[in-house]
Amino acid sequence: RMAYTILATVPGIPAIFYGDEAGLEGYHDPFNRMPYPWGREDHNLINYFINIGEIRRNNSIYKEGKFKLLYVDSETLVFERYDADHSYVTFVNNTKFPRKIEFSSEAQILISGNAEITKSSMTELPAYTSQIFKIEKHSYIYF
Greater confidence, 69 or 110? Predict the structure, then answer.
C-alpha cells in the first residue's frame, strides 16, 4: 500500500502487474506470475487501489501539478503535488511507530475515503502506512 501510494502520487502514470491489486504475489520462476486469484482476492486491497484511482481521477493536480520533495530519510517520505490553488501532500511512515502530524490550517484526509477534516490538531499516522492530505496553499506541516 505504501509503495502504491508513492507510485500513484509522484509525477507519471502508475503501472502495476496484473493481480497486484488483488494481493497476488510473485515468486521465483516459473511461479513469478500466477493466475488471477478468483474468489481469493484481498477485497480491502482492491478497495485501496480503487480509492487511490479515484483520488487521481478526481484531482487534476496528479496530471498537471508540480512536484516538491519536502522531507526524506530512511523511514519517512513527504512530498507535495501543487498548483497555484491547491496542495496535496503524500506522507509515508515507514517506521514501527505512529507519527504525529500537525497542520497550520485545515487538512482533508483523502485515503480514508470519508473526506475527514482535521483542524490544526495533531493527526496520527499509524506505523507502516501512508496518507494523502489536501491542504490549503502555503500551509505548514509539523511532524
Answer: 69
- Residue range 64-97, pLDDT digits in tens: 999 999 999 999 999 999 998 889 999 999 999 9
Distance, in Å, from the CA atom of 129 to the CA atom of 107, rounded to the nearest integer, reads: 18
Mapping DSSP onto H, E and C, the string for 13-35 reads: CCCCCCCHHHCCCCCCCCCCCCC
pLDDT in tens, 32-74: 778 888 999 999 999 999 999 999 999 999 999 999 999 999 9
List the 116-119 sheet strands across, edge first: 66-72, 76-82, 87-93, 129-135, 106-109, 116-119
Closest by CA to 139, choosing from 121, 123, 120, is: 120
Q: Residue 78, Cβ neighbours under 10 Å: how many?
A: 20
> 51 in helix, strand or coil?
helix
Kindly report the backbone phi and psi dihedral angles of residue 61, in degrees, each rounded to the nearest multiple of 5, phi listed first. Answer: -55, -30
What's the distance, Cα to Cα, between the start and end of the chain in Å? 21
In the chain, % of residues over pLDDT 70:
92
Contact between residue 116 and residue 102 where contact means Cβ atoms under 8 Å apart: no
